[in-house]
């Protein structure tokens, strides 16, 4: 077993006033359209959370500015978890703020992934501990030697921030300079993140506390967190209904992938996907095939500038099949790190999960399913804007490839399970 579940979402969330049970949500007009999706998410531990205000970020600097503002205004607690938390200009900006809030008496907890944050020295994180905060390393290496990690194949790929139990962040943007567009090689860096204010952040809080209790071997009864202000009384902040899903190798089910498959096969009009890596399994490929054959407008966008060339070659091999099937495929003129799925007119997924087997089965991930016509329209317009900055490719694009490239793609595809 990769890790034991320390906390079940149902343990805390079912006791919070304002969180809807499945029976309660049946009276909501939303469920008339999306009953099956809501039920599936619910059965995977994701409660329907109504009344949220949600803001979408398309650029790292915009997200960073709001995150810094919210950290500065924190009064009770800051729980922050990142796959990559780098010791660079961006990382030090956030670390300095966290240290300051810890000195002010705010309860600050930080989780970083051992592999994703391997370039940041431990003394960087010890600054927070010295300031009065708490730090945990997810899957630390053997005897603190970072080159010897028996769980190197498993990563906590989540990006979760919860402030005062009322404001939450998740999405693709890590705490590192290149995610802010400061790497000339990977410019422009297009990414997507969300800020959730309202009951939707309770699920993000629960995901964080689940990971925290595991990392720290914390035996605190889950209900203590409810009693100590980590889940304050919810406020109606907006009109967006949210369900937040988590998945990881500690579960026999690939919850996020299976919800994605259900979203795709239930689509009636459109499925627009953005992902930096497209290495799906047969089930996901079949879902896309069914959607296309059913007359759904399916489009996939990936970066034109890769950060991992081996995975990019595999991505192109799968995209060739998509083009042959009738999917419209776009190469974004820059690096596209967004992990989003737009479905029909009222469903939108934004999270940390790439469209590949590693994210589906080996990484700890999360994604927010947003039920909102206005947000769907907003991000659809963003997708169309990104299309104008992209190259649409057809089968001739692949035919022009040199034979050695085609051979390399075939070999790398055979080895894709190892990436």
Task: Characterise the protein shown here.
- It contains 15 helices and 20 strands.
- The chain has 419 residues and is an alpha/beta fold.
- It folds into two domains: 219 residues, Endonuclease Chain A (Endonuclease, Chain A, 2-Layer Sandwich); 164 residues, Endonuclease Chain A (Endonuclease, Chain A), CATH 3.30.870.10.
- The strands form three sheets. It has a 16-stranded mixed sheet that branches.
- Helix 6 links the parallel strand 3 and strand 4.
- The chain is globular, with a radius of gyration of 21 Å.
Features:
two-stranded parallel ribbon, Endonuclease, Chain A, 16-stranded mixed β-sheet, alpha/beta, 419 residues
Compile the SSE list and pairings.
Elements: H1 9-13, H2 22-25, H3 31-43, E1 49-57, H4 60-72, E2 77-82, H5 89-103, E3 107-113, H6 122-130, E4 134-138, E5 155-156, E6 159-163, E7 167-171, E8 189-190, E9 193-197, H7 201-216, H8 222-227, E10 240-247, H9 255-266, E11 270-274, E12 278-279, H10 282-293, E13 297-303, H11 309-325, E14 328-332, E15 335-336, E16 340-343, E17 347-351, E18 355-356, H12 357-362, E19 363-371, H13 373-388, E20 390-393, H14 395-399, H15 403-414
Parallel strand pairs: 2-3, 3-4, 5-19, 8-15, 11-13, 12-18, 13-14
Antiparallel strand pairs: 1-9, 1-10, 2-6, 6-7, 7-9, 10-19, 11-16, 14-20, 16-17, 17-19
Helix pairs in contact: 5-6, 9-10, 11-15
